[in-house]
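so the lab meeting is tmrw and i was supposed to have these ready like two days ago... anyway. pasting both below. for each one the top line is the aa sequence and the line under it is the structure tokens. i havent really looked at them closely yet so no promises
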Amino acid sequence: MKDEYGPGLWVAYECTAPADRWRIAERAYSGTPLDVFDHAADVIVERLTGWHRWEAEFVWRAALGAWPEVDGDLLGRGVDVSLLPPARATNTVYAWLRGQLSQDDKAWKKFQKDMRHEPRRVVLREAEKPMPADDQAELQRLIASQ
């Protein structure tokens, strides 16, 4: 199993109410393709945090890499991230990271670029969607004018 496709199953499982997790396990054992779980995980995380899953993951990985500093600084300001709902916690950690990186414009731009980089699975899923008729007509006009 490719690393890029496996985590969605675990995110979907962990973000599902414990009483309903058997449904996720049943689907996994019945052969539901892993990309279905990735899509479900993308939707779940976006609903919980207001962030695309890959962006929220990037923010949290960066924060966890400096967790003693993040947690200590925020606790010193009276904010216990562990008590916040997922969306507020993610926003708070993002703001902390932004504060740390804002001194270095190049580092901040790299952070933003890396955070917004869509995973291959998302790019492929978007590419499979049909093009809206207006866009398709415009593309045909452009091609015809060449």
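ok protien two:
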Amino acid sequence: MEGWSVLSGDLLHFFAHGVPGMSAAHRDCIALPVWSFLHRLPPEPAFEQLFQEVAQRCGTCYYPLELKAILSLLDFFRGRFGDFSILSLQKMLLPYAYFLPMGTYRRYSERQLQVRMTDSFSDLFPTYRLLGQEYLLPDGGRVDLLAMEGDRAVLFELKLGNADPTPQLERYARMFQDPILIGVTEKALPGALCRPHVTYYTYHSLNDLALEHLRERQLRMPGGDLTQLRELVLSCYSC
């Protein structure tokens, strides 16, 4: 699985050394948007200029991978504009990098949403280790996503419309010892259908989860060296 983690990806290292095993197409989906973004900005941009560049990318014509690269790039502007201002720009981009606003999922199948979850998994659930999707179980059933937290299994079921993931999760849970159960739905389930042993998200609320992790990361880590990154990026694509 190839992708980009906004939480753990290091753009400086990426441009200096690359990522072993990453295909050229995926590499360019990260490198070219970063180069284009920096190339269009002056060395010391005003916040309004940065805002305009971000606003132009708030649309579905960009691949999620490209926008995750821009989310990482924005972190390098924290020293100039402050955590709050940069987080506000990242919040603008989040739905397009992860999950689109409510009402837009009909263009996707559950399988396509599985792929989007897989590509974003380490940003949404950084404490879990993803094992796979459509994971075959002993009874012949397939859990949409299977992950681990230490020695404890984490089962995900993804649904569209008003479908309830709870019955499948409860059936699959019998094959594991004290698993964590997570249901992801297009629309929030009525309270009467929710079970206390299942954690429920909507696709749109996963954006809030990613934003929460970005905010926590800002508290732990300083912003990157923008001057160093700019010189490295522009030198890589100077020809």
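from a quick look at the 2nd one: The mean pLDDT is 88. The longest strand covers residues 129-136. will dig more after coffe
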